[in-house]
Amino acid sequence: MKIYSALFLTLLSVPLSATAIKTIKYNGMVHLSESVAIRMLDFEAGDNVSDEAIDMAVKKYFKQGYFNDVWAEIDSGVLTFNFKEKPTISKIELKGWKESDKEINDSIIQIKRGSLYDEKKLEAAKKRIIEAISKDGKIDSVVEIEKEYLDNGSVKVTFVVNEGEKIIINKLSYSDALVLNTDLFDDVIANKEHEFMGWFWGRNDGKMSLTDLQYDPLRIRDFYMQYGYLDAKVNEPFVRANFDSYTADMSYQIEEGEVYKITKVTINQVVNVIDESKIKEVIHLKDGEPFNIKTFREDAQNIKTIIADLSYAFVEVVPDLKKDKENHTVEVVFKITPGEKVKIRDVIISGNNRTLDRIIRRELYLGPGDMYSLTDLKDSRSALGRLGFFDSNTVEEKRIDNQNMDLIVKVKEAPTGNIQLGGGYGSYGGLLVSVSVEDRNIWGSGINVGVKAEKSQMTQNYSFNISNPRLNDTDFSGNFSIYKSENDYIDYTVKTEGVSVGTGYRFTRYLSGYLAYGYSANSYSNYLNSIYIDTYYFENYAKSSMTVSVKYDNTDDFYLPREGVNISQSVEKAGVGADANFVKTRTTLGKYNGLKDYVGFDAIFRYKAKYNFVKDTGMLPIAEKFYMGGIGSVRGYQSYSLSPLDSNDVTRRMGGKQTFSNSLEVSFPLVEKAKMRVVTYLDWGFIGEDSLTEISRGGYGAGLEWFSPVGPIQLMFSKPLNQHDGDTTSSFEFTMGQRF
Considering only CA atoms, which of 83, 91, 95 is closest in space to residue 30? Predict the structure, then answer.
């Protein structure tokens, strides 16, 4: 009996359908090599293999994701695995949505050409497209996937998109909002009630942003907390949508609560690293005043900055509020954990394929061995931006340990030079033919060199200039130029040949001075009225002058600053051994503010002003006086057309001795990837012989700012304000190479 039992158990241990495999073959396999495929098997040639083991092998191959089908065949001991490979995707297209946006494939579709056709990945991409469209506030969007097998066996995939409709908010109401003016909520929320002419800039179009619905209540509550309402509650909006008309009514339920006043501001330093009085100097929250969450955050950042400027790079400032709900008061507590002092171990520069490392390093206020400073770090970023050599720059902090860090400076180079042989059409000069070679950063050295020859209907200019803002990497600068020009003004033509040389010095990070000498020979021709030939105003003259100037600039970018101010003042004294004898002063101001934190996109506010004054101290040629009109003063009027007139001949412009012009501008992105922006502006200026009140003109309009491959270009479309009889207006102007 025992013998029969042992035999029975032995038979059970042998696979009932095992097959002796002599050879293993693969048919139709491309994406896997045979050596890899064999290593994936749990058996090898010569083994007795069960059907179950073969089935498991088929499933394992199929799970690799390379095949539409896998099956096995056995014939006379030869095991053959057959594969039907998935086709590769050779073309991917979008129809009906962002068809020309090349980055959509990387960011949304996320399927590369040459990848295998995979239904699951295509469905995931389809879902991402719908989600991306819904972020624009559109619902009921439909995406269909079309596939086409090409002759080479690959597949062309087309995502056909039918965008849905945007929901327009017809009515937005706030229940129990009794204290604050609800109209002010529009400044912080994304979903706003539709206004009449909502398509016009500055008006609310009422389009619903689905992704912002969850954040708008938090924004309203934060707004209440700026006025001390710490217990304010704002529920998620109730939305009543009409999907027939794609409109909606929205309402918020608000509990305002009471205003909390500050009883005390407490500073708690875990380790005492700075005198408490120094911290209180940067705190703006005051005892007895209503609490303000915005000031609260700013104070926390101010504290972090002054501590980090003492080399405590990893300082933590944890603000806290101790509320007394019964008395509606609050104690503000700033807990400061400074950590340890941090030293810069190394500064690593990347992305500068052209600009020399030393040109970047000399603009940095932190180097290897220096103690960390947050202000120095921020100023270094701004200094790199003011060079105008880079499209962007970042300075990353790489923590090595508690006492050391590396700074990783990453720059993206911008085109700083160009060679031009061609022509164009200028709004003032007319047809233009030019040959120029100019580079603001020649050979990556930081030196500016330019050779130019150009001729238009109104101007001829030939010049050579070279300037170095940091002679031998010091704080001294140098400049030399030689030029010859002929300019046709409205009433006369001036020919000038001259040379200038100068040197400057940077006193502080933002303040620099400049001293220059210039000599020029000037002659007149093509008078508007021949009776003025050889009169005092049109005598040919030579000018020898010294110019002293000072400039303050703490902006964060050369061409497109978003923060900071630049102020310059120059005084020119002519009469150093030549005919012309006068004193001329020029004052400029530019103030820049980024508005992204307020409006949610990269808008920029600018205020620009200029004041010019000249005093006759012996001989003041008419070409040395001032004129207004055009870009840089008052747009809407032709360049140089605004001027006091001769009392004996009201057709002849005499030029003014003093001018003041100022501009308000708002710039916002149009096509970010193409570096195009739209700017709206209002200009107003004054000019006179004896008083600024003699002539007053304004202009307004809109324009295009474009960082083109050949440099920054401005296209301005303007309308004049306060126009008088005889004024020469201009509706279109453009410039190239100027700071926005």
Answer: 83
> What range defines the domain where residue 489 resides?
469-736
- How many C-beta atoms lie closer than 10 Å to residue 92's C-beta? 19
CA–CA separation, 267 vs 276, rounded Å?
Answer: 7
Both 75 and 179 in one domain: the answer is no
What's the one-letter identity of residue 286?
A: K
pLDDT tens readout for residues 156-201: 989 999 888 888 899 999 999 889 988 889 888 888 888 887 777 6
pTM of the model: 0.68
- Residue 158 placed within a domain: yes
Do 625 and 494 share a structural domain?
Answer: yes
Neighbours of 468 (CB within 10 A): 18
**Residue that is last in its domain, among 337, 366, 397:** 337
Give the count of domains, the chain. 6
The reply to whether 727 falls in a domain is: yes
Q: What is the pLDDT of residue 428?
A: 45
Among candidate residues 55, 85, 115, the one where a domain is terminated: 85
Q: Are residues 44 and 190 in the same domain?
A: no
The single-letter DSSP state of residue 228 is: T
CATH of the domain at 579: 2.40.160.50
Alpha-carbon torsion angle 155, 161, 162, 164, nearest 10 = 150
**How far are the Cα atoms of 555, 567, 658, 685 from residue 610, in angstroms, in the given order?**
18, 10, 10, 9
Category of 152 on φ-ψ map: left (φ > 0), alpha (ψ -120 to 50) or beta = alpha
Low-confidence ranges of the chain (pLDDT < 50): 1-16, 420-432, 530-534
Instruction: Look at strands 261-269 and 329-337 and give their pairing.
Output: parallel
Tell me if 624 sits within 8 A of 584, measured CB to CB: yes
How many other C-beta atoms lie within 10 A of the C-beta of residue 139? Answer: 17
What ranges make up the beta strands (E) of 226-287?
233-234, 238-242, 247-255, 261-269
| Residue 378 CA neighbour count, 13 Å, CB half | 12
Within-domain flag for 8: no
Whether residues 656 and 692 share a domain: the answer is yes
Report whether 455 contacts 430 (CB < 8 A): no
What the block records as the tokens of 674 is 């193409």
Rounded to whole angstroms, the Cα distance separating 7 from 545 reads 120
C-alpha–C-alpha distance, residues 505 and 515, integer Å: 9
Question: Is the domain of 137 the same as that of 214?
Answer: no
At residue 688, the 3 state secondary structure works out as strand
Together in a domain, 599 and 665: yes
> Pick from 568, 571, 528: which is nearest to 551 by CA?
568
Do residues 270 and 223 both lie within one domain? no
Q: Is 496 helix (H, G, I), strand (E, B) or coil?
A: strand
Element (H or E) spanning 120, and its range? helix 119-135
Best CA proximity match to 375, nearest among 366, 367, 363:
366
Q: How far is 55 from 43, CA to CA, in rounded Å?
A: 12
Residue 3 pLDDT: 43
Whether residue 720 lies inside any domain: the answer is: yes
| 650 and 688 share one domain | yes
Residue type at 301 in one-letter notation = Q
- Domain of 216: which CATH number? 3.10.20.310
Three-state DSSP class for residue 326: coil
pLDDT tens digit string along 110-137? 888 888 888 888 889 888 888 888 877 7
